[in-house]
What does this fold into?
Amino acid sequence: MTDANEGSSFGRLRQYGSGRVFSDLDLRRVKFTSSVLAQHDDPSFGLVVRDSILQNCSFSACTMAGVRLENVTVDEAKLSNSSISGCVFRNVTLRGKIGQFLFAGPVRSPGAEMFAAFSDGMANFYRDVDWALDVRDAVFADATIRAVPGELVRRDENRHFLLRRADRDTALSLPDPPDLAKAYFRDFDLTPFDSMVAVASQGSKTFEKQLAELQWLRERSLAG
It folds into this structure.
């Protein structure tokens, strides 16, 4: 049975801890403010959102960490001052205007041992994933997708560029590269994966600059 909600607002909603599943959600024009969906002690990702649709929802000052998302479609979203850390994705589609999509690796606050466990857990999860994210029809205001294996991201090659860890040293040794070129490759220090997708954010005022600098890398065979 689908759990539908349209037009509601939630403030300071807190869902902590693993061992729970949220499924068959149909959320339309729902607003979340200062809300949290997170767990920090289960690197097998037992906190799950699956088989759900979110349409025209907004997230302000929200946090999602340690969550497994499967068969989820996000159709238009407003994300501002929100963070997504140490989550894993299977068949998740983003389309339309998305806002800021800043996806980082596991949080470090639980300590080095748990950070390493989550990093290993993410790597193990993606071993049997056919594709993780589809961002071909997404328009980002800003996007960082460093903590998903680049080969598992369905992308628009005109705006989304595949970077590989093997090219990191070459890129960082280039004389006088564009401003952002080295920054993209330094992001490999923050991810357990050997590839990532760098995004020229079409909804950003600096889109043309981002695009030119990523194309500069591609012209030198440092981006796919």
Residues 112-125 form the longest helix (14 residues). The two ends are 42 Å apart (CA to CA). The CA atoms of residues 76 and 96 lie 5 Å apart.
